[in-house]
User: Which sequence fits this backbone?
């Protein structure tokens, strides 16, 4: 499921690349700030390359009319098309490695932001992600896609170097927007040799792991943090902001537009302080290590079954997978993946959902069972199918007991999902982090039974103890 396992690679000290999960996007992003401050050989001149690209865009915009009848405006729209770079396997996609992408609407948003910037007296950008300070539509996935597109040629060369060093088989693929032609001011495609993703049949692009963050270094949220720490009096006097959480993103954008000098101070501060990549080894948010740990568990705790041919067989499989998930968390140190490295702070609900995803996917793969391409695993309710000709479905929801909307999830949410999907049985998995959580769900089976009878469905509840410092199963 991860690149190194799929291609049987033994990593060395030279291998500084992020080892992507090939069947599912990892919720990390390429941060241009980290790329541009790096002295990495393949990316050493990319900052100037990017500045030149946006300086050209500003130059064209300065003589263009902001409407689609103007040829220069249309040229800008084509320049600023940054579709999702699926090949890096990063981002917010909830299904597989394909997200929402960035089409013409996003292109227009960038171009309009350039015109707005010119009105504010901005004629160039040292950090293109600064555009996100003036527009609500710029999230970390957009900035990551823009970076991956602008640096696609360098990323390809970097990936090819890894493949050459490890003798990885490659195939010819056509990459759109391989590089920008400064002579004709247009993007050029290129046929290149790259490794192929067995899950998507598309190319794989590798990036240095030191370029990845959970959020961009320069962002509206980070800008506001800086302002709250350094411009607190001004925020109170000029904007009547008394509480830090009082503002939303549109408020932050308005503050940025009205205080260009604050942005300059913020950028200077950021340049001086620098930034740090996401710590993939510690994985504080649980975005990545789930795939490795669940694979090791499944290898050590195998069970064999065939593709379910009837409802009983399907129910048996579903019950066994949930049982193995429970065993993994409670008795095989899986709970440690739901806490920070010191065991002081529990991780988010998404971390537990991803762990369950790993258990399901690895058991299916180990038994040569294909999951339907429309699978939705690991981001909310889990609705999975077998592509075996005989279709059965199970709705499985993983919730934290400490979630403030926990009871709503049991009494309303899962029931609604069952109704919409026309499924009669749902499995409600509850993760408890401490004794208070366990006390909270003392009567949950009774409540689930009542909710089930009322809505004419069956609700199966599984309570899992994920409290820290458990003895492993081998020590019991």
Assistant:
């Amino acid at each position: 499921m991860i690149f190194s396992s799929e291609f049987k690679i033994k990593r060395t000290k030279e291998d500084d690349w992020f080892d992507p999960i090939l069947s599912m996007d990892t919720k990390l992003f390429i941060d241009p700030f980290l790329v541009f401050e790096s002295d990495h050989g393949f990316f050493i001149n990319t900052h100037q390359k990017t500045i030149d690209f946006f300086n050209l865009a500003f130059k064209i915009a300065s003589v263009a009319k902001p409407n689609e009848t103007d040829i220069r405006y249309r040229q800008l729209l084509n320049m600023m098309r940054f579709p999702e770079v699926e090949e890096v396997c990063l981002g917010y996609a909830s299904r597989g490695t394909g997200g929402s992408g960035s089409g013409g609407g996003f292109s227009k948003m960038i171009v309009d932001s350039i015109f707005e910037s010119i009105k504010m007296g901005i004629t160039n950008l040292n950090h293109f992600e600064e555009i996100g300070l003036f527009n609500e539509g710029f999230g970390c996935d957009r900035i990551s896609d823009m970076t991956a597109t602008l640096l696609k040629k360098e990323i390809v060369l970097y990936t090819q170097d890894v493949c050459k060093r490890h003798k990885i088989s490659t195939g010819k693929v056509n990459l759109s927007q391989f590089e920008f032609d400064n002579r004709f001011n247009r993007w050029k495609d290129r046929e290149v040799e790259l490794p192929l993703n067995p899950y998507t049949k598309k190319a794989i692009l590798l990036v240095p792991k030191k370029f990845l963050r959970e959020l961009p270094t320069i962002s509206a949220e980070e800008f506001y943090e800086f302002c709250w720490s350094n411009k607190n009096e001004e925020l109170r006097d000029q904007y009547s902001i008394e509480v830090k959480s009082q503002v939303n993103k549109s408020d932050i954008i308005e503050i940025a537009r009205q205080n260009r000098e604050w942005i300059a101070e913020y950028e200077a501060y950021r340049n001086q302080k620098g930034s740090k990549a996401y710590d993939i080894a510690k994985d504080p948010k649980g975005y990545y290590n789930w795939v490795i740990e669940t694979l090791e568990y499944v290898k050590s705790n195998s069970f064999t079954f065939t593709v379910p041919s009837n409802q009983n067989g399907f129910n048996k499989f579903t019950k066994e997978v949930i049982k193995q998930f429970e065993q993994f968390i409670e008795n095989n140190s899986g709970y440690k993946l739901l806490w920070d490295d010191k065991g002081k702070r529990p991780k988010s609900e998404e971390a537990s959902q991803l762990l369950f995803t790993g258990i399901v996917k690895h058991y299916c793969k180990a038994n040569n069972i294909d999951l339907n391409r429309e699978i939705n695993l690991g981001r909310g309710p889990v609705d999975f199918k077998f592509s075996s000709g005989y279709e059965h479905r199970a709705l499985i929801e993983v919730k934290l007991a400490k979630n403030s909307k926990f009871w709503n999830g049991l009494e309303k949410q899962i029931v609604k999902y069952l109704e919409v999907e026309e499924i009669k049985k749902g499995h409600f998995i509850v993760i408890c982090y401490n004794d208070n959580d366990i006390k909270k769900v003392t009567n949950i089976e009774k409540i689930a039974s009542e909710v089930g009878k009322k809505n004419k469905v069956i609700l199966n509840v599984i309570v899992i103890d994920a409290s820290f410092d458990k003895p492993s199963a081998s020590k019991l």
In short: Confidence is low (pLDDT under 50) at residues 94-102.
